[in-house]
Structure formats: structure tokens, C-alpha cells
């Protein structure tokens, strides 16, 4: 390992609008050496997620921004290759916020050991990790599904959306997804078993919702915001539950739009709209993982990954994801 280098991707500039590859620096440095109580982890898979766009801005939201010249924030999974910790042994598989880098040091406070019995290693940062748990708790707890409910989920083929739609089917709901291409539309209907889907780039979303949801909408799991959300809001039923998971259509706008437009409908329809962060459910994560792993084993829950090889491709893959180029959970394979 001594003649190997650590490849790291740092934030170079704070983007205005969509990030560019020049907003990142790919840097080679020496592999860090763990101190007493620390471990060295070799990253095997890196997760790319929409929240990272927010961390590139100089604004504190629910977490601090990445500083210019700092390693980009990111969840990753890898193996312990050196240990000066009594808790971790060489070969242990661990997951946490290791960042966009080939090797990371940890004192153990920000990582967890991965149970490989539940699924392949990369599922620990995908369907059995942050995005899958977001779908699981954001749907089951915030949306409180009842069998027979009509559920709409946006960004339906993505890391979160594909899981939401399938859990909704397991719960006995009717599920309609909104997606950005015909191949994503076929995937959610033909492979995942959604009842219908709408290509929001080609179809009039309002008209398509009228056709696919003739009895109105009981649950909306919102990943996107903007005009898709406006069209859904106009069609909610009395007692609807709306889970505001994300607003990706707004992340690269210089000024967010005023969306949704039609808030008074919440009063008229006596409905609730609730934002959440997956971290709220941290103490329950293992329960969610075990239940979803069971559904995967029984064939009730499928997952699609969008894998790109090589850390140096992370910036362009991340930018592509913000533009809808990913088809499934976006992952970078390093080893
Ligand atoms: N609350 C939480 O704790 C939490 C945790 C994780 C994720 N999230 C949020 O969940 C959402 C989905 O995340 P993910 O990881 O599953 O991402 P993803 O769906 O795998 O990838 C992002 C997708 O968003 C869609 N998209 C991009 N621009 C859009 C636009 N202008 N209008 C509509 N759709 C657009 C694209 O799909 P199409 O080709 O279909 O447009 C793209 O593939 C994001 O908003 C994210 O911030 C929230």
C-alpha cells in the first residue's frame, strides 16, 4: 500500500445553477496513516445523492456546507485495511460519510459495520442504506398508507422513488409514478409493477393524472417539487397525506420557485403535508433494513442500480444525475 496514492475529489468552486466539472478538483495525495484509536478504510463504493448539491452552496441548512478545497461529502462503503482500534479488524466492512475519496480515516464515531447477510455490499448505501430507508420511513410513517389508497410518487425510477412505489404496492395501494423518459416509464410499470406512469417531459401531467387517478390522489410522495407537484396538489382527496421528501427541480435554480402554488387546497381537503429528514428515524434503521431485506429475498422488492466505474468519473456522474441521466440508484465503483 505504501506506493499507492489516495485519490480525492475536492470542491473547487461554489456553483451557480447546475454544477460543472470545473467545480471539482481531482487530487492525488498520500494515503493517510491512522492514529491510535483510528482505522484506515479503502472505499469500494461511493453513493451519489441529490443532497450533495445543497452542500456545495455557502448556506447552512440541516448540515454545514462543504468548504472550498475540502473533500466532497458522500456516503460510502469500504473495508478496513489498517486498524489501530480495538473495535474494528482488518477486513471489516463499514459504511458512513467517508467522502469522495479512495481512502478515509475514521475514529469509528461516524461509521457502522455492515451486515453482508442482508444484501450485496453496495446495497448498504442504496436500497438498504440512506435512500432506501428514506423511502421506507418517509412512506410508511409520513404517508400512513391504507390498502386501496391511490399513491403518486415523483422521480419514480430513482433511488428513493422506485422503493416508495414498490412498498406502496406491498401495502395494497394503487401506484402511479412520474418519470423523465419512456424507458423509465416502462421500467416502473413492467418491471416494478406500478399501475401506471407519466412521462412529465412528454405528457401534460394534469391530464395524465386525470386519466390515471380517476378517483383522486390519497398520497403524494414528493421528490421533485415544481410543476409536477402543482398538478398533483390540484387533485388530492380529502385527508390526503403528502410527504415532502425532496424538491430536486429547485436545487439548481438561482431562486426557488414558489411551489407548490395551491396551498389552500390543504385546508379545503383537510390534508397534511409534512417534510422529513431520514435521520429522524435513525434509531429504527435496523428494523427498516431487516424488513426490506426480507422483501428483497421474497422477490417483492426489486432494485435497479446505475453504476459508473472509477472515482474520477464521480463529478460528471453527479452532474448527470441532477439532469436525470441516472437510471436507478447512482453508485460509483472504486474497487
Ligand atoms: N428527506 C430526506 O431525508 C431525503 C433523503 C434522500 C433523498 N431525498 C430527496 O429525494 C429525492 C430523490 O433522491 P434520489 O436519491 O432518489 O435521486 P434519484 O431519483 O435517484 O435521481 C434524481 C432524479 O431526479 C429527477 N429529476 C431531476 N431533475 C428533475 C426536475 N427538474 N423535475 C423532476 N424530476 C427531476 C431525475 O429523474 P427523471 O429522469 O425521472 O426526471 C433524476 O434521475 C431528491 O429530491 C432528494 O433530495 C431526501
Question: What is this structure, in a nutshell?
Answer:
The chain is built from 9 helices and 15 strands. NADP nicotinamide-adenine-dinucleotide phosphate binds next to helix 2 and helix 6.
If you had to describe this structure to a student in words, what would you say it looks like?
- Helix 2 packs across helix 3 and helix 2 crosses helix 8 (285-298).
- The protein has 2 domains: 5-126 and 303-333, Alpha-Beta Complex (Quinone Oxidoreductase, Chain A, domain 1), CATH 3.90.180; 130-279, 3-Layer(aba) Sandwich (Rossmann fold).
- Strands 3, 4, 5, 6, 7, 14 and 15 form a 7-stranded mixed sheet that branches. Strands 10-9-8-11-12-13 form a 6-stranded parallel sheet, sandwiched between helices.
- 24% of the residues lie in helices and 25% in strands.
- The model has no long low-confidence stretch (mean pLDDT 97).
- It is built from 9 helices and 15 strands.
- It is of the alpha/beta class and 335 residues long.
- The protein has helices at residues 51-55, 130-140, 161-170, 182-191, 205-212, 226-233, 264-268, 285-298, 314-322, and strands at residues 5-11, 24-30, 39-47, 76-83, 93-96, 103-106, 111-113, 150-153, 174-179, 196-199, 217-222, 236-244, 272-275, 305-309, 329-333.
- Bound molecules: NADP nicotinamide-adenine-dinucleotide phosphate (NAP).
- Residues 49-51, 131, 134, 155, 157-161, 179-181, 184, 223-224, 226, 228, 245-249, 276-278, 321, 324, 326, 330 line the site of NADP nicotinamide-adenine-dinucleotide phosphate.
